[in-house]
Amino acid sequence: MKAWRIGSLGEPKDVMRLEEVADPTPGAGQLVVKVLASPANFPDVLMCRGLYQVKPELPFTAGVELCGEVVALGEGVDAFQIGDRVIGGGSLPYGGFGELALMDAATTFPAPEALSDAEASSLYIGYQTGWFALHRRANIQPGETLLVHAAAGGVGSAAIQLGKAAGATVIGVVGGPEKAEVAKKLGADVVIDRHTEDFVKVVKEVTGGKGADVIYDPVGGDTYDRSTKCIAFEGRILIIGFAGGRIQEAALNHSLIKNYSIVGLHWGLYNALAPELVAECHRELTRMAAEGSIKPLVSETLSLEQVADGVQRLADGETVGRVVYGARS
């Protein structure tokens, strides 16, 4: 089969190579799927650079989530059948950026019928992360104000939709007019272009000086530092990631004085420690997709040959929504 292999570390455009490799064979508890769609995620970028917490042995095929059609079952797999359409995580070294991928049955789920292949492939990581962050970690309530950073990206766009579905007023922060239009279409009540506006000032104006009850921060660094200036009394700042490149240090005296919480979210731990909650989340997301309250924003569908370019553009901050490798569209 053909697959994008990473044999050294660096920028995606420099280290990803489209090669002929052996087809994967499922081990116990695994399945092989024909890849129908696989979105680019920031962890794919970080793994190319050798900066992700998971450091697979070289060479490997990235693509941390996907939608696929089951073509082979490993020993002990009885929850799926050949031909099933499924979503979940790619099991390295055979991730989603190839014609075939390997998946672990324990983290694989039926693809929602309401979503296309590309949309379904984008439901797993971003929406599960958003659901756990907003509902399990922040306990968001109807009527609260949610501030979402990088609101036009894959993770941020999911947070907007999930926040609206939870009954929150959503403020999205983006970089540039094109991304502002995307955030508006996703349902954000207020959109702030950080290139021309001070999000701290706007949040305070919109909330009458109160600040945001929940802040969803996948950026970190200076974005986090500024967020502490517009967090509400008893607010919660969700630490989702560090796409900005700098891992911030929290001033705990400030958290004490202003009575806000700094809440971490490592969604992957739920797969290891509470898989029943991941399954519950998938059922809830499937229900929401069926009723139309969530729908992953797929901005581009790529051929296999275009994958490295798409991952690099994600790394450079040039994409909106989801950029998805789709074997069929």
From TrEMBL:
Enzyme class: oxidoreductase
Family matches, as CDD domains: QOR1 (cd08241)
Gene3D superfamilies linked: Medium-chain alcohol dehydrogenases, catalytic domain, NAD(P)-binding Rossmann-like Domain
Record protein name field: NADPH2:quinone reductase
Keyword set, alphabetical order: Oxidoreductase
Keyword Oxidoreductase found: yes
Classification via Pfam families: ADH_N, ADH_zinc_N
Source species of the chain: Nocardioides panzhihuensis
Gene Ontology terms for molecular function: quinone reductase (NADPH) activity; zinc ion binding
Coiled-coil stretches: none
